[in-house]
Amino acid sequence: MIYWYIFLAFFIPGVLGYGGGPASIPLVEKEVVDRYGWMTTQEFGEVLALGNALPGPIATKMAGYIGYMEGGVLGSIVALFASVAPSLFLMLILMATLMKYKDSMQVKNITKLIRPVIAVLLGAMTLQFFLTSKEAVGSIQTIVLIVVSYWLLEVRKIHPAFVIGLALAYGAISSFI
Amino acid sequence: MKTNADIFAAFFRVGILGFGGGPSAIPLFHREAVKKYKWMTDDEFGDTLALGNTMPGPIATKMAGYIGYRVNGIAGSLVALFASVVPTVLLMILLLGALQQFKGVEWVNNMSAAVVPVVGVMLAVMTWDFFKKSGESLGWMRAIWLTLMFAIMLEVLHIHPAFVIIGILIIVLVPLKKRGGTM
Predict the structure, then answer these.
(1) Cα–Cα distance measured from residue B84 to residue B170, given in angstroms and rounded to the nearest whole number
(2) CB distance B25–A57 less than 8 Å?
(3) Distance CA B168, CA B174 (A)
(4) Which residues of chain A have pLDDT under 50?
């Protein structure tokens, strides 16, 4: 039964995540945190942070890892299959048909109209992360971490892997002061 | 055999070098498939990317699976998928597994806690990115109205995103045959 749930949890984001891997992140969170309760927001955040710091496609890294946590090696394979196979089949099978509609307004409108949906879902997740952080480390540290990491990521354009490394180091050191 | 080895090498390199998620790997795909191995022309690559972008699901694996299929059928597709996905998933399982071992130790907990706001910032940036692209492609007024409407549907009424997205698909695709009109 768990494999069926794992399949569903990654099949739905895989098939609905218009706009590439990042678009499916809030959909995955909806399934694994809200619906199945496999992990907390904070744990999801750790997986996402580490996933972002490592190379390779993000959606499949998350799927492979969460599948592994819930159902071992087979769970990992099921999650990967569910997130990759359906959209790939669609791509292989519909290639010829969709090529004709590639420039049609309707097909382009799908991506356009779904963008605000993804923006809302990402925005809600952002808020959730800030609130979780406020509870864990307090308002002041949260604000400092937000400002500093924003500055490093967006102003200095430092690679996320290093910023996450710095945050981890700060967290470890702060408990000894 | 050489072909599958080439496919493996190409997508392994892309998978292991593509920091920043699937979309950041697209130029790497281009370098391997068009420049290095000449599996497809620039135009074909552009078409594949355009099509991949209009379809749901992760972009990197769609590209890998499709290019692999074009080069060497189903075997090629499987090799490409395996090479681009498995190494990084293994890395992830190993690293997070190591982190889990130390769960409950105070300094490890503090490490995880300190990462949460950083992820929040990255998500906020992504949110703004999606919203900005909406504004540019739909016009700001319409983007703001749609965002507000979707926010109410998703966060106030708690409608599952699946229904919202399927609803959009129906609204956009159903009139496809009847009229050639624009949105």
Answers:
(1) 33
(2) yes
(3) 10
(4) none
* Cβ count within 10 A of residue A65: 24
Predicted confidence (pLDDT) per residue in A118-135, tens digit: 888 888 888 988 998 898
Report how far apart the first and last C-alpha atoms of chain B are (Å, whole number): 49
**Interface probe with B: pick from A41, A65, A155, most Cβ of B within 10 Å:** A65
**Contact check, Cβ <8 Å, A16/B118:** no
On chain B, the residues whose CB falls within 8 A of the CB of A28 are none
What are the tokens at B13? 């390199």
Kindly state whether A37 is in contact with chain B, defined as any CB-CB distance less than 8 angstroms: no
Contact predicate B107/A113, CB 8 Å: no
Secondary structure letter of residue A20 according to DSSP: S
CB-CB neighbors (< 8 A) of A76 in chain B: 89, 93
Indicate the residue of B18, B89, B114 with minimum beta-carbon distance to A168.
B114
The secondary structure of chain A in percent helix, strand, coil, rounded to multiples of 5, reads 85, 0, 15
**pLDDT greater than 50 at residue B183:** no
In the prediction, which pLDDT does A37 show?
94
The ipTM (two decimal places) reads 0.76
What confidence score (pLDDT) does residue B178 get? 52
> What is the pTM assigned to this prediction?
0.74
Model pLDDT for residues A13-44, shown as the tens digit of each residue: 988 887 677 788 889 999 999 999 999 988 89
Mean pLDDT for chain B? 84
What distance in Å separates residue B70's CA from the closest CA in chain A? 9
Is B79 buried (19+), middle (13-18) or exposed (0-12) by CB count in 10 A? buried
